[in-house]
Design goal:
This protein is an all-alpha fold. It is built from five helices and no strands.
Length: 136
């Protein structure tokens, strides 16, 4: 909504399309993280999964996607990733204890991300403004 206050419909459309195409990169990030986290700690799993996300974003980002192409890309990537990690879906997760400040930290991080996108949107263009919306 805040981007729409500063930009025209073409910018918002291009940003949404870039974000849609880059959702496939997020699926790749999650899949790589799930596979690595089975044997490695968080300090190895997250950076390597993030590197995979950046590689996918660099691969998918420069392409000028049509809406149907981005949807097909997402369908293919999400189905492949689902079948790769499907065997881990039945594993019971231990309960987590959230601290009282957890919500405030998450809300603050989202606010900083939105603020950064808004401030940089004129400089990074619609494709750059679409990338942070799907950042893991």
């Amino acid at each position: 909504m805040f981007l729409a206050l500063d930009h025209d419909a073409a910018f918002i459309s291009a940003s949404a399309l870039a974000s849609l195409a880059l959702n496939a990169a997020t699926a790749i990030y999650v899949t790589v993280y799930v596979l690595l986290a089975q044997r490695r700690g968080i300090w190895i799993s997250v950076p390597l999964a993030l590197a995979a996300w950046f590689a996918a974003a660099l691969l998918f980002g420069p392409v000028h996607w049509a809406a149907w192409e981005a949807l097909v890309l997402n369908l293919i990537i999400f189905v492949l990733c689902f079948f790769i990690v499907e065997r881990y879906s039945r594993v019971r997760m231990p309960p987590t204890k959230r601290t009282w400040y957890d919500f405030m930290i998450r809300a603050g991080m989202v606010a900083l991300l939105v603020g950064a996108v808004l401030m940089l949107s004129f400089r990074i263009g619609p494709a750059g403004s679409g990338i942070p919306q799907c950042f893991p």
